[in-house]
Amino acid sequence: MSLTILHPATVHFPIGLLILASLSGLYYLTIQARKELLVLTWWPMLAGWGTCLVSVFTGIFDQGKLPPDPPYARLLDTHVSTGLAVLLVYGILLFQRWSNRNKATVGDPVLDSARGLTRLWIGFLLVVGAGLVIWAGWSGGQLVYKWGVNVR
Fold this sequence. Notes:
The chain is mainly alpha-helical. Helices cover 74% and strands 0% of the residues. It has five helices and no strands. α2 runs antiparallel to α3 (35-63) and α4 packs antiparallel against α5. It is elongated and about 50 Å long. The chain starts with a helix and ends in a 7-residue tail after the last helix. 29% of the residues are buried.
């Protein structure tokens, strides 16, 4: 199986998982701190980050097969940049969770201990992360449906 087939097949997993994680985390932070929302925040975020890593790897591999100076180069750069930014934003959140895993709290070591600016910062990262996922998905859709990139 070629990697060209794997990139389109794997991009949908991080989109769904990371948006679910952001929405659940934001709900936990702003509306109701329910334990179930922690499961819907951290596990999908970890799975989404891992599948995003696979999608980025296969996408970069596919990019090497494209013409050197295509008319959609700016859109492609946007797609690659937003994909890498998604990895960074959710990687920061996961690292924060991992580095605080031994703190003794009843609920969540990151979301519950977040007060004031830290709470805003985490909420901001969740919103930015979801926005980047949507932007990367939109630009990828434009590459496929408008420009026919890697469509056989």
